[in-house]
Amino acid sequence: MDLTYTAEEDEFRARLSRWLARTLPELPPPPDPLDWPGRRAYDTGWQRRLYDAGYAGLHWPVDAGGQGATPTQHLIFLEETEKAGAPYVGANFVGLLHAGPTIASEGSAEQRARWLPPVLRGEEVWCQGFSEPDAGSDLASLCTRAWRDGDHYVVSGSKIWTSHAEVADWCELLVRTTPVSGSVPKHRGISWLAMPMDAPGITVRPLRTLAGSTEFAEMFLDEVRVPVSHRVGDENDGWRVTMVTLSYERGTAFVGEVVACRRVLGELAREARKNGRWDDAVLRRRLGHLSAEFAALWRLTQWNVSESQRTGGVPGVGGSVFKLHYSHARQELYEAAADVLGPGALDLGHPWNHDRLSSLSYTIAAGTSQIQQNIVAERILGLPKGR
Ligand SMILES: Cc1cc2nc3c(=O)[nH]c(=O)nc-3n(C[C@H](O)[C@H](O)[C@H](O)COP(=O)(O)OP(=O)(O)OC[C@H]3O[C@@H](n4cnc5c(N)ncnc54)[C@H](O)[C@@H]3O)c2cc1C
């Protein structure tokens, strides 16, 4: 494994950092975190700038509209954009980081041509309709049903925790196309559909989080008609396609945030020096420990990227190790932030407090910590299945 950068990669980094230094001062001020239409406009506007400058879909294959960059260049991109304080991927999260890569790897030529360019240009936003009230960790138990009616599926059921549903144009939707029976195990009758969010029969009811945001929603589907041509992969083969989606979600989707956490850690140390909390040796030790954690996570990221560069495949189970440790380290980071703020931790308007409340969801979203531990136990350590 080689973790050093080549001259070409250094040149790529320098070019990108010059572009960021020129472009970021031109951006409008970021919207209020609770203003979802404003956030959509801001996030897609940033995506358009990336597209115009040749940085959109950097690591996507060229025939999917991407730049065909290596995973290492993508890592450099994430590192430099975070370091420079560029906007977060935001509402484009699902489209760019897992629905898009899934369509690029599993979709037909027509599907790639239809759905990928608008994601890259920041014109269309995607959401993820996987979880249901009784199918989260046990995703294969999902009940949302799809019947064939000519060249359409008719979809009825409900989804929950659908992030960005309020502002999305498309949904990567899992449906049951064959009921579970003695001969059909539950993960064999599932299909992966691209559902237009403006189709009749869809009701989106926003849910308010602890941090006051309506970033996700319940979604009710009442005989929604989705063309059969919107199915990615074969009918009933959606579980395999889903595994591709989840490996992107856990493998690469949170990587840029490690750099952001390292930036916040630096801010905590500066604030502690200013307000006198730095004299507390216990707090200093905590910050030191976190610094080591995030350094290790960054090394793990490089290791995972180096592995996928060597194998040319989708991110492996190393993504679960990353997701498990990252989500806990992030929670510890914002616990430390509350300690640095002291009584200021009661001010819910402070961005660290908003992020602290949001950080609680990280050990649940994209697969809970217990599920990641099961994956690590079974697939990396080779331990027997729990059940
Ligand atoms: C902020 C946020 C955003 C989200 N966004 C989306 C989205 O956009 N689209 C979407 O489809 N979903 C989304 N989700 C849903 C998320 O993927 C699920 O919440 C998650 O998979 C857990 O499922 P569950 O809530 O049904 O909990 P359950 O599966 O009911 O789990 C309850 C508890 O039991 C534990 N548990 C369950 N099974 C096992 C097991 N086999 N071994 C050990 N422990 C186990 C779990 O770890 C957990 O602690 C989001 C969730 C959050 C918090």
Automatic annotation (TrEMBL):
Cite the GO molecular-function annotations of the record: flavin adenine dinucleotide binding; short-chain fatty acyl-CoA dehydrogenase activity
Q: What cofactor does this one take?
A: FAD
**Enzyme Commission no:** 1.3.8.1
Q: Which family does it belong to?
A: Belongs to the acyl-CoA dehydrogenase family.
Q: Where is the Acyl-CoA dehydrogenase/oxidase N-terminal domain?
A: 6-123
Residue stretches making up the Acyl-CoA oxidase/dehydrogenase middle domain: 127-223
Q: What is the lineage of its organism?
A: Bacteria, Bacillati, Actinomycetota, Actinomycetes, Kitasatosporales
Report the GO terms under cellular component: plasma membrane
What does the UniProt keyword field contain?
FAD, Flavoprotein, Oxidoreductase
Q: Which residues form a coiled coil?
A: none
Matching entries from Gene3D superfamilies are given as: Acyl-CoA dehydrogenase/oxidase, N-terminal domain, Butyryl-CoA Dehydrogenase, subunit A, domain 2, Butyryl-CoA Dehydrogenase, subunit A, domain 3
Q: What is this protein called?
A: Butyryl-CoA dehydrogenase
Q: Which domain of life is it from?
A: Bacteria
Q: Name one Pfam family in it.
A: Acyl-CoA_dh_M
Ranges for domain Acyl-CoA dehydrogenase/oxidase C-terminal come to 236-381
